[in-house]
């Protein structure tokens, strides 16, 4: 979960990993928690056991460093098929816009 003291702007990395090898998502999250710039995470699993995880970061350089380590982990413990199933999306979380001030009554 996003750390309570974290305020936008920040970055969210959404990734999914195959259900096997066992606990790959957990290992990737442990890597993230050791990386400077990591703010927190939340995760869900579908019926097949595939995990979808959202990690929060304070800068894109930290994401790049984590991604390099995560891809190395995947290449060590996973198969070529696992690498093809790994998906990653990066989004910027911005402060809420003040939409009320521009609206007509």
What does this structure look like?
- The protein has 105 residues and is an alpha+beta fold.
- 33% of the residues lie in helices and 29% in strands.
- It contains three helices and four strands.
- It has helices at 24-34, 60-77, 80-85, and strands at residues 10-17, 38-45, 51-57, 87-93.
- A four-stranded antiparallel β-sheet has the order 2-3-1-4.
- Strand 2 (38-45) and strand 3 form a beta hairpin.
- Helix 1 runs antiparallel to helix 2.
- The longest helix has 18 residues, at 60-77.
- It is globular and about 50 Å long.
- The relative contact order is 0.27.
- The model has no long low-confidence stretch (mean pLDDT 77).
Q: What would you call the shape?
A: globular
User: Which residue ranges are poorly predicted, with pLDDT under 50 across at least 5 consecutive positions?
Assistant: none
What's the arrangement of strands in the largest beta sheet? Answer: 2-3-1-4
Number of discrete helical segments: 3
Tell me what portion of residues adopts beta-strand conformation.
Answer: 25-35%
Return Rg in Å: 16 Å
Q: How would you summarize what this structure contains?
A:
With 105 residues, the chain is α+β, with helices and mostly antiparallel strands. The protein has helices spanning 24-34, 60-77, 80-85; strands at 10-17, 38-45, 51-57, 87-93.
List keywords for this structure.
globular, single chain, 4 strands, four-stranded antiparallel sheet, 105 residues, alpha+beta
Topology:
Layout: E1 10-17, H1 24-34, E2 38-45, E3 51-57, H2 60-77, H3 80-85, E4 87-93
Antiparallel strand pairs: 1-3, 1-4, 2-3
Helix pairs in contact: 1-2
